[in-house]
Design a protein that fits this description.
The structure holds two protein chains of two kinds.
Chain A (H helix, E strand, L loop, with lengths): L1 H20 L12 H9 L2 H15 L22 H10 L6 H7 L1 H11 L9 H5 L1 H9 L1 H4 L12 H15 L3 H36 L4
Chain B lengths: L1 H12 L1 H10 L2 E3 L8 H20 L9 H12 L3 H28 L8 H23 L4 H12 L7 H11 L6 H33 L16 E3 H25 L29 H9 L3 H16 L1 H4 L11 H20 L6 H34 L1
Antiparallel strand pairs in B: 1-2
């Protein structure tokens, strides 16, 4: 009877947390097509990421940077900018923070802004904030996802888009190998804690019986 | 040797006596239910937040242009185990808030705000306010799109009061006409120094006050000082040990396998002052207030409505004057309490949805249901007193 009374409360509070955290309130609008899923299933992530880096450098670096992967727009290799870029990279261990990057190449970035209305964003974290589905559809056909955007349609194949998306994933999320490592550590930690809980419970029971205390 | 060292310290500090009195011999009622371990869990997660916070602080840079990369690049990718520290801090904050809310709601369930524990309740309420400020200031620091616009909204809050001076207050909080370096360093100082120190002091008072008055018992009887029906605290510690290990296992699951819900993906977009995101909703622990605020068309009235909810929480000891304690002994109270929980849950869930006319209608209805709980308390108390007088 005492237990029955707490059931509705557990259901309400548990249901609240479940609804808020499970993501059922925000269903994914954009999906990766089946053909692209097949490519991902066939080719390893490391291979796709490698391909993606090449494709990205070929089609995207005219405007975009991926600073977390030390990739900068092609203007840094122009004869007037290259010596400065090389020096800055050397002095900053390969990573230019926004103060350095945005001041050293202010003129070039201003040129891009004049051409596109706003500076094309750095794509280091794009995979996470756009989500895989939206990112795929956006690269495939920008106008469909963001009508009116200045981003041109590059007419890439599914394989190229999947490769770019996988490459961008490695820029912000851990690689498959690293994820496996984390999962392994996590499994050990959870097993350890559960064993600890059981031992604690047994010890408590022993102490209570020994002292003759009922609870 | 060790004995004499112990005595040397004890005679000079007296700390051992306090520990013995408060942590070992302090007596609590038998048969404490699970919600009674929430307090200890909250203290545990506060400790986790402080420790992980210190490590995250070592690499974080409070600067408009550097903050985002210092979190998402330096901490997450360059620092060894940095991802672990950040997950610990982010998931820990979520757990901390979830525990605080459940602690508060079970406190209402067991009528823990009644005489002689009014001060425990009031200090707890202040802790809740400080916690909200802590999560808000912490939320700004990564300088993602969500952080930026959340802080913009929060710092505009004072202007909801239609007074000329409030515009100035808003400017004063921001330190300029828009969120900038000054705002970040300001909130950073609050988040890492002032608010945690304040919280430590408040938690200390909270614990001291309830040790003075004793814990409520699940069935509402006052057992403080009753030797027969209480057990020394040390036996509860063992029980807490089991619960802490289980909760930490769940915590570990989120850290190692599934930390995404605690680091919203929209916040991985660097702050862009030029573009307002289409749908902004606060984190889940504030969505109920957000829903109340936006469902009322008038900004000032909406602001006041959220405050009314908080003030009703604070004055619970005045509203509920019945001598009876614990919802297990009060069927009427139990029914109203369920309504209160349901309305709060609906408000919290609806607050995450896009702002539509339907959402506003739901917000109004459930806000009223929520208020009915507080307003009904004096009436329930009146009936219960009458019934008691008849017996």
């Amino acid at each position: 009877m005492k237990f029955l009374r707490s059931i509705p409360i557990i259901l309400i509070i548990g249901g609240l947390f479940y609804a808020l955290w499970s993501g059922i309130l925000e269903p994914e609008k954009w999906k990766v097509p089946h053909s692209a899923e097949l490519i991902k299933a066939k080719v390893s992530e490391a291979q796709l990421a490698k391909e993606g880096e090449k494709t990205f450098k070929m089609f995207c670096t005219a405007c975009h940077s991926v600073r977390y992967k030390e990739i900068y727009p092609t203007f840094v290799n122009a004869p007037n900018a290259k010596p400065l870029f090389k020096l800055l990279m050397k002095k900053n261990n390969g990573f230019l923070n926004r103060y350095i990057y945005e001041s050293a190449f202010a003129l070039q970035l201003k040129g891009l802004k004049a051409a596109f209305g706003s500076v094309p964003p750095d794509l280091s974290t794009a995979y996470v904030y756009m989500g895989e589905g939206k990112l795929f559809n956006f690269i495939k056909d920008p106008q469909k996802v963001l009508p009116g955007t200045k981003m041109p349609n590059m007419h890439l194949s599914d394989r190229q888009v999947v490769a770019i998306s996988t490459f961008l994933k490695t820029a912000i999320l851990p690689t498959e190998k690293e994820t496996q490592k984390r999962h392994l550590i996590g499994t050990f930690v959870i097993i350890f804690l559960i064993v600890l809980a059981v031992l604690f419970a047994l010890y408590r029971k022993a102490v209570l019986t020994e002292e003759g205390i009922e609870d | 040797m060790s004995q004499s060292v112990k005595e040397w310290f004890e005679s000079r500090t007296g700390l051992g006596k306090i520990f013995q009195k408060e942590m070992v011999e302090y007596r609590v009622p038998k048969g404490l239910t699970l919600p009674y371990s929430l307090g200890v869990l909250a203290v545990l997660f506060f400790a986790i937040q402080i420790i992980s916070g210190i490590f995250v602080l070592m690499y974080y840079k409070p600067d408009m242009k550097l903050a985002f990369d210092s979190v998402n690049y330096t901490i997450m990718q360059v620092v060894p185990w940095g991802w672990f520290l950040r997950s610990l801090h982010a998931v820990g904050a979520g757990f901390f808030m979830a525990i605080i809310y459940t602690h508060m709601f079970t406190g209402i369930y067991y009528n823990a705000y009644k005489s002689p524990r009014q001060l425990v309740w009031i200090i707890g309420w202040i802790i809740y306010m400080v916690m909200i400020l802590l999560v808000l200031t912490g939320y700004l620091l990564p300088q993602g799109q969500l952080s930026y616009w959340a802080s913009e909204v929060v710092s505009e809050m004072p202007t909801a009061i239609p007074l000329d001076i409030m515009e100035k207050v808003s400017l004063w909080i921001k330190g300029g006409f828009s969120i900038g370096d000054i705002t970040i360093t300001r909130l950073f100082a609050l988040h890492v120094v002032f608010l945690p120190l304040l919280l430590i002091a408040l938690v200390f008072l909270h614990i001291q006050f309830f040790h003075q008055t004793g814990v409520t018992s699940p069935d509402g009887r006052e057992l403080h000082g009753n030797e027969k029906e209480t057990v020394p605290f040390i036996y509860v510690t063992l029980k807490e040990g089991v619960i802490i290990a289980v909760v930490l296992a769940a915590f570990a699951y989120f850290i190692f396998f599934y930390s995404a819900p605690f680091t919203p993906s929209a916040n991985f977009e660097p702050a862009n002052p030029m573009r307002t995101p289409a749908d902004i909703a606060p984190e889940w622990y504030l969505t109920a207030f957000y829903e109340i605020f936006r469902s009322i068309p008038n900004k000032f009235l909406g602001f006041m409505a959220t405050n009314v909810f908080l003030i009703f929480l604070l004055i619970l000891p005045i509203l509920d004057t019945s001598k009876k304690k614990s919802a297990t002994k009060r069927p009427l109270f139990y029914f109203m309490y369920l309504l209160f929980l349901i309305s709060f849950a609906v408000l919290a869930i609806e607050g995450t949805q896009p702002a539509t006319a339907q959402a506003a209608a739901i917000g109004k209805i459930f806000f009223i249901i929520n208020m009915i709980f507080f307003i009904s308390l004096p009436i329930i108390s009146h009936f219960e007193k009458k019934k008691e007088a008849l017996q």
